[in-house]
Design a protein that fits this description.
757 residues, 8-stranded parallel beta sheet, TIM Barrel, 2 domains, EC 2.1.1.14, alpha/beta, 24 strands, 5-stranded parallel beta sheet
Length: 757
Amino acid sequence: MVLAHNLGFPRMGDKRELKWALEGYWKGQLSQEELIKVGNELQNLHWKRQKEGGLDLIPVGDFSWYDHVLDMSVLLGVIPPRFGHTGGNVDLNTYFRMARGRSIQGKEAAACEMTKWFNTNYHYIVPEFQSQQIFSLSSNILFERVTAAQELGMPMKPVLLGPLSFLWLGKVKGDAFDKLSLLEGLLPAYSQVLQQLKTQGVEWVQIDEPILVLDLPPDWKAAFKKAYDYLANSGLKCLLTTYFGALGDNTQLACQLPTAGLHIDLTSAPEQLIKVLDGLPSDKILSVGIVDGRNIWRNDLEASLQQLETVHKRLGDRLWVAPSCSLLHCPMDLTLELGLDKELKSWLAFAVQKIEEVVALKQALTKGREAVAATLKASAAAQASRRQSNRTHRPEVRTRIASVNEKLAQRCHDYSTRAQAQREYLKLPLYPTTTIGSFPQTANIRKARQEFKKGQISAQEYDEQMKAEIQKAIREQEKYGLDVLVHGEAERNDMVEYFGEQLEGFAFTQNGWVQSYGSRCVKPPIIYGDVARAQPMTVEWIRYAQSLTDKWVKGMLTGPVTILQWSFVRDDQSRADTCLQIALALRDEVLDLEQAGIKIIQIDEPAFREGLPLRRLEWKQYLDWAVRCFQVSAAGVEDETQIHTHMCYSEFNDIIEAIAALDADVITIETSRSDGELLAAFAAFNYPNEIGPGVYDIHSPSLPTVNQIVGLIKKATQYIPPERLWINPDCGLKTRDWPEVESALCTMVAAAQKLRA
């Protein structure tokens, strides 16, 4: 029969219970037993909700203490030597030291690198491979979770990241070698995992190979057949899972691999369906990802059903229905949203509702449309409401978009001319020091924000408290000796949400949390209509901060591409058009900041590479409009006004020309976890503008030393002239506490002074 299943479920809980438990454990406020108890309760609850929702198969192994890629590293014994693992099962403290550099027990060590999961805002922990890498089963957690699911009577399928994707996502450390050469040693370990699952009575296993939607070299394509021929003898039925794009030239390869089923993502690549159907063997299951696992818009059930009915005629009971990808990328449950406008809420679906949509589609196929008539009617009404609503279009915004020309996207003069003007005007020292923007969001700040939202304090009282926090940030930075200061962003709940709250065309949730990495969650805004700025958003805060000091204070903005990428974006017009609307709103803010006397303005674009399509053929179109949007937001200022941007956890090598085309006067980047590797890309390209290589990994509680920072900057001078180098942390300091910040930034300033000397 047609089956309804799921690829993965959110981990954090309705009220982010896992976040609070993890952070309590890391602070020593919760025992390991208490942490595990919270995790087990959440996992069991999530299984129960999916089963009661009507799914025929529920994923097991998608729950994680930090990250599912890190889980695979631990399962397979891929533990970097610096963590001192000598064999046997990897304990939880070693696991957290790999993720964060530190845990309750065990010696501190440099945390493993973290980067973006394909083109999403989820960050994974990068596996590290040595030339003589040995793979051996080093964790029982997956098998214990399978047993727990069986004891609860869950109809489950374990989830594994596939061997080729695991290797592809990892990095070679130490002596250079071809990481694909590790496959021969890796496959026996995977086989052991499958054999163990077989002995536990497992029938189906989901093996994720998302790299099949990428441009793969010939040797990697050939390796797929070798790998799955080897694993085919496990006796388990394997569902090979792909998502985030089309199989494209890998279609025949994926269809012909010796697996029992194949999953494809039709929400991001509907055009691949016919080609896959034509290439699918007559005995293979096709799982169709028809409900969007990455966005929050309600599914058009009628349109989906028409598509599925065509597939059902060809495949019969060999058709499965599912979300496009793991629901990790969606908020948990729409019913928790009590403050959303009724009409807008009717347009949305979160993880729990997406499971209901999958099950409804399955029931319509197996029992007939009459069985879900009310559900289909409600879906059709929501689609009609959204199409006909006058809330989504603003004629004045459309008119302004149509008037954008190339002149609007160009600075008055080139960088060399601007740099000279900025040196004379700003008078900054060699190796200027600064931070990326935010300072610790203390309990007092969060308390004031909550009290203001609940109406317990007035707007004036809230403003006074925020100004006190800004004054503290300025005084602390002056004490540390930083050269360019920031106001600390005390008034901002989130670098995207804050701006969305002040832009028209955005809506917000109360509990729409999505995991970004580890315990870090974000609450993406919803872009439902045309975007415009009603009034200045940051000017008064920055003007106040600048009035407190004789040093320069940066204006801090989130860039148009990042606001787009880190929101749930409307799907009824192109992303390029939505991004340009945001860029024009930000341009107005930049010009108002300059008019207020702010001569250094940072427009952050940490999500710039994240938006890159997975296929190179589509890169140029994206980069053209993404670069143009940034330029439009920044290009209206005078030569003396210095435009900064910030990007973190991105591989720049293959898009360095586009980074240069942004024409920011200064770019700050992450280099501490990657040991300065990114700088080579800027050097090889002969990047012409100024660079701030991050010297302090703010995602780890471990603090840098003066010698470490000096060493990293000296390494940077091999690539970038000293007069074009800045010294700064990797990212904002929102998640750290003040004692850590003081220690790290004073160390950073001392390193700058040593370098100048």
